[in-house]
């Protein structure tokens, strides 16, 4: 197994792509910490995997809250050991009646909330966990960007695409800064993946994306997890600062 002896922390690990990540890492030998704001689904997932004999620990936190992230990291490291693999997956894409809010009507609170959950969270976890990775001279970091960070999409709002573009800049900067310390930093840009996040829009909108996608379908959470496991495995030890589309050829950004 490729992730034996690894301690992986997945943010937003209770549902959607995060749940697939948690399960795949646990089945690939890693001890997995889940950080999520949804206590009910996170604890249930941890219980289900623990019952299957896998090492999983759930910690509740809002990823936009630095003190809560610190407490969650401390709890996970106390239960599983030092985190060497961080997957910044938590993200939100607020809609109103299934539609993105135009920037000229958006509330400043909504704008700031998306910055906190989608971008400031990545700073929070890197700030808390990178010192240990630097000290041990090993680390793997992957952040969930989006094709919306690279191309205009009318099905998301400005805050969402702004945060996903920010993660691409942060990935490249951190790859440069942390590379000399044995840490790789990459990002994944999913296309349209069938999760609760995309079910909030009209079905026709997702069908249109499927038709525009060369592979003529939405992606599955497990297909994003496969790329993430590759990026954090030893097979990708010389890959850093990259943004990998998992999008069925949609947009080819
Ligand atoms: N689904 C897609 O088509 C798609 C496409 C491109 C990028 N992405 C990105 O992939 C990531 C996962 O998306 P998904 O589709 O699985 O979303 P999802 O909504 O299905 O799941 C997101 C998870 O994050 C958790 N979460 C939300 N806000 C949180 C907070 N403040 N603190 C802690 N946890 C929080 C939720 O409880 C949930 O478990 C996101 O960053 C998203 O932007 C998704």
TrEMBL record:
Residues 6-191 form the Ketoreductase domain. Keywords: Oxidoreductase. It comes from the Bacteria. GO terms for molecular function: oxidoreductase activity, acting on the CH-OH group of donors, NAD or NADP as acceptor. Pfam families: adh_short_C2. InterPro entries: KR_dom, NAD(P)-bd_dom_sf, Sc_DH/Rdtase_CS, SDR_fam. Belongs to the short-chain dehydrogenases/reductases (SDR) family. This is 3-ketoacyl-ACP reductase.
